């Protein structure tokens, strides 16, 4: 499959204007001349998402709230989107598929439905979205040096939590719940985490596991059943569906037992006259009060459908080739130092963070944008503990004392080309 960058539609597209002949559902929209290497923050819009939204817009009306033809079509589109997205992520028969605003929202929702006394176990390498929502008493394990160390550390931590006298005796059915919350791929380094192995460890200790797949899902198939994980959180805007929807997929029991994430219309089965006379709905509606983001859900489903029909192995190979080109190119620049948690050959998605020695990262990013039309991210990437640690390690590894306190990040995906990578490398070569 070839994936090409196609220009955005004219400012006022008419419904009669055909798309460019070569446009495929996984082509991405973009502005010719602008090199977008910031997919990890927000990926560009896939043609599939744009087309699905354009097709539905004339019918745009209320969801779950109207008897008219438009409204019924929108309700159907929303629920079909739920089905498509659930299928794409391997939702099991007993799972709920909830539309949220994004991954942050999905993980906060999960945090709100944890049974009382749940201990959440994370690693220090997580994005803030998977560090900050969890309740007091959560356990944060140190950032491991390699994937196998993460598995060993989790095993030890869960064994300790399950030790008699520290949270319930082994084998007891009513042990306090434990939830492991881990990323599928780091937004700082792109390194993949050993999710399936961590899930096996969690199972062995009777813990549940949630995967923050915000960065993994855009790059690799993610299936809750195959991975045997309990919950999955994803952002549509990182998955080529830029209309502000996210998803939480996972076990229904905690979701159905908890008070609604948002209280309001759509989340109720019955509301009486007395102040607290309310019976909440079960199922997805319980946590989706208010008018939902129909276009976001439909756009996300369209991308999921397009990816489901694509040759993911070919997409993966193409992305890995670009990633290798980028990393080799960076390694050849003596004033550039890459950030990494694991060894240099650890499996990664198309994300690389690095610093330019002697240069402020914000200045380099501004130079890339202003003088080279290249968009990258700079900062600590909403993963401050990890980014600071990796910056310190990069200084120690390289022996350089002139590394800046923040980093740069380049990320690729559908529509990225070797020319984009080469333009970045050339600009960085001149940035010493
Ligand atoms: C690994 C990871 N988790 C969670 C998030 C939060 O995603 P969102 O901002 O879409 O909620 C991000 C965003 O960069 C991320 O990279």
Question: Which terms would index this structure?
Answer:
single chain; alpha/beta; 7-stranded mixed β-sheet; 4-stranded antiparallel β-sheet; 16% strand; globular; disordered N terminus; binds pyridoxal-5'-phosphate
Poorly predicted runs of 5 or more residues = 1-21
Order the strands across the largest sheet as they lie in space.
Answer: 4-10-9-8-7-5-6
Ends: how far apart? 37 Å
Morphology: globular
Secondary-structure element pattern, one letter each:
EEEHHEHEEHEHEHEEHEEHHEEHEEHEH
Helix content: 25-40%
If you compute it from the alpha carbons, what radius of gyration comes out, rounded to the nearest whole angstrom? 23 Å
Indicate the mean pLDDT.
93
Task: Give the biggest sheet.
Answer: 7 strands, mixed
Question: Any overview of this molecule?
Answer:
This protein is of the alpha/beta class. Helices cover 34% and strands 16% of the residues. The protein has helices at 47-56, 69-88, 103-112, 147-161, 195-204, 224-227, 252-257, 294-308, 312-331, 361-372, 384-398, 418-429, and strands at 5-6, 28-29, 35-36, 95-100, 119-123, 139-141, 178-183, 208-212, 231-235, 246-251, 268-271, 278-280, 336-338, 351-356, 374-375, 377-379, 407-411. It has a 7-stranded mixed β-sheet, with helices on both faces. It is globular, with a radius of gyration of 23 Å. The two termini are 37 Å apart. Bound molecules: pyridoxal-5'-phosphate (PLP).
């Amino acid at each position: 499959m070839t994936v090409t960058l196609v220009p955005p539609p004219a400012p006022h597209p008419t419904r009669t204007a055909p798309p460019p002949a070569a446009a495929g559902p996984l082509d991405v929209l973009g502005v010719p001349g602008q090199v977008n290497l910031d997919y990890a923050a927000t990926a560009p819009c896939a043609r599939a998402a744009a087309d699905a939204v354009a097709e539905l817009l004339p019918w745009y009306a209320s969801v779950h709230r109207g008897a008219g033809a438009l409204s019924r079509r929108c309700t159907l589109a929303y629920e079909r989107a739920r089905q498509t997205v659930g299928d794409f992520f391997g939702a099991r028969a007993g799972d709920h598929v909830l539309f949220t605003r994004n991954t942050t929202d999905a993980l906060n929702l999960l945090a709100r439905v944890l049974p009382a006394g749940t201990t959440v176990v994370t690693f220090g390498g997580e994005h803030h979205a998977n560090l900050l929502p969890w309740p007091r008493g959560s356990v944060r394990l140190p950032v491991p040096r390699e994937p196998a160390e993460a598995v060993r550390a989790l095993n030890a931590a869960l064994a300790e939590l399950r030790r008699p006298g520290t949270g319930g005796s082994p084998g007891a059915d009513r042990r306090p719940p434990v939830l492991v919350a881990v990323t599928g791929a780091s937004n700082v380094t792109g390194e993949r985490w050993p999710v399936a192995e961590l899930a096996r460890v969690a199972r062995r200790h009777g813990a549940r596991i949630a995967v923050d797949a915000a960065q993994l899902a855009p790059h690799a198939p993610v299936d809750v059943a195959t991975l045997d994980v309990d919950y999955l959180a994803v952002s549509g805007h990182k998955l080529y569906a830029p209309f502000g929807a996210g998803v939480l997929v996972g076990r229904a029991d905690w979701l159905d037992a908890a008070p609604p994430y948002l209280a309001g219309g759509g989340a109720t089965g019955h509301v009486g006259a007395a102040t607290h006379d309310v019976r909440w709905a079960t199922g997805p509606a319980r946590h989706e009060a208010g008018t939902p983001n129909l276009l976001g859900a439909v756009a996300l489903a369209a991308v999921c459908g397009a990816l489901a029909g694509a040759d993911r192995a070919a997409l993966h190979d193409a992305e890995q080739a670009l990633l290798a080109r980028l990393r080799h190119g960076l390694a050849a620049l003596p004033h550039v130092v890459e950030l990494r948690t694991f060894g240099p050959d650890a499996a990664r998605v198309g994300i690389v963070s690095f610093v330019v020695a002697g240069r402020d990262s914000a200045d380099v990013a501004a130079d890339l944008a202003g003088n080279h039309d290249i968009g990258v991210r700079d900062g600590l990437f909403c993963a401050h503990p990890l980014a600071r640690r990796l910056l310190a390690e990069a200084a120690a590894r390289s022996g350089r004392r002139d590394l800046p306190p923040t980093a740069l990040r380049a990320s690729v995906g559908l529509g990225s080309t070797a020319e984009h990578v080469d333009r970045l490398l050339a600009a960085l070569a001149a940035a010493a």
